[in-house]
Description:
Elements: E1 2-5, E2 26-29, E3 33-40, E4 44-51, E5 53-61, E6 64-70, E7 75-76, E8 86-94, E9 100-113, E10 152-154, E11 158-160, E12 163-170, E13 173-176, E14 181-194, H1 218-224, E15 244-249, H2 257-266, E16 270-275, H3 283-295, E17 302-306, E18 341-345, H4 350-365, H5 371-374
Parallel strand pairs: 15-16, 15-17, 17-18
Antiparallel strand pairs: 1-5, 2-3, 3-4, 4-14, 5-6, 7-8, 8-12, 9-14, 10-12, 11-12, 13-14
Amino acid sequence: MKSYINRKTIYYILIILLIPASSIAQWLNSGGIKTNILSVTSQSTKVEYILTNYDERTVDVNGIECVQYQIPGSIVLMEKGMPQLPSDRRSIVIPDFAATNYSIVNAEYELKETLPVIPSKGHFTRNIDPDSVPFEFNEFYTTNNWYPEENILLDIPYIVRDLRGQTIQFNPMQYNPAEGMLRICKRIVVEVFNDFGGQAVNPFIRNNPLEAVDKDFNEVYKSLFINYGIGEFDYTPLEETGRLLIIYPTTFSSNITPFYNWKVERGLTTLLAEYPTQTGTGSTAIKNYIQNLYNSPEGLTFIILVGEASQIPTINGQYESAPSDPCYIKLAGSDAYPDAFISRISPTSAANLDYVLWKLIRYEKYPDTGRTLHGI
C-alpha cells in the first residue's frame, strides 16, 4: 500500500488583528482531510478543506487490475457499479428559514494517471456476505466523463431538536475512465450562503425564539456541527436536565415505583405514563403522546420504554418498515434525525424487572470508578 503526502509544505500565516470572533479559524481533522472554519455569520459559513494524505492499493476485479483509493477517516461513495471513491461529509448549522446554496471561492487540483478505479458493490443488508456480491462495471466506464461530477454537494436540510443543519459532501477525487486520469482536489474553500431567491426546505418553525439549547444535546451539537459554538451559532446550554418520560404496561405498575422515586431523588423531572390507560393503544398513540409532551413548553428529552414489544409496541421505520424504537423520537421537522434520547428495558417477568431496575439504581447511586470503567 502506498501513502501519498503533499509534496509541498503549506504554511499559513494567520494575522489576527481586531477581527471579529466569528472569523477566527477552527481546525478539525478527520485523518486525511483537515477542515478549517474560516468565518461564520448569519448569512454564510465559509469552510476550507485540505487533503493531507490518501492511500491506494491494487485489486483484481474480474481479471482486471484496478485501484482502490482510501482517505483515513472518510467514507466512500456507494453507488453500485460506479467508481468507489472517498468522500467526506460534515454538517453545519444553518438559519431556521434559509434556502441555501454554495460557491467555490477557490480550489487547487492535481491530475494523476490511474488504473481503473474499483467499482462499488453498492448497499446491501448485513446478512449478505460482501464476498458473495459480484463486482459490476457501470456503462460509465466506457465514457469520457468525470465521476463524481461535482466536488461539493449540499444535502437536504434537517432539524436536530434545537437546531437546523445541513450536510456538506466534499468529493476530493474524480475519475475519468477514457482519459485514465484521477483529478484530486488538494484544497478547496466553500461558502454556504443564504439564497434569498430559493425556496427553503424543511424550515424550522419555532413556538418561541431560541435562547438556550438543551443541556444534554449540547455535546451532540459539538460533535455533529463543525460551525457550532462559533459566531452566530454560539449558544448557551440550559442548566437543568430535560424531562424524562417512563412508559410502562399496566402489569408493571407496582414495579416501576422505586425506579421513579430514584429518578425524582436524583433531581430529574420524571413523568410516568401507563400503557394503554394513559397513552392510548398502539404505536401511533404512543408516538402522539410523546410528540405532545415534546411540543409542550417544558419539552421532553428522555424516554424509557419498559416491556417487550408485545407489552409496549415498537413503531415501524419509514423505509424498510422494520421495528424501530428510535422512530418514536423523530419529533421535529420532516427528516429522520432523532430529537430526543430513547431506550428500552425488556424484562422477562416482574421479578426480572425488579432486579434490572435495582441494578440500574445501584449503578447510578454508586457508580463504579474502578479500573474497568476508566480503562486503566
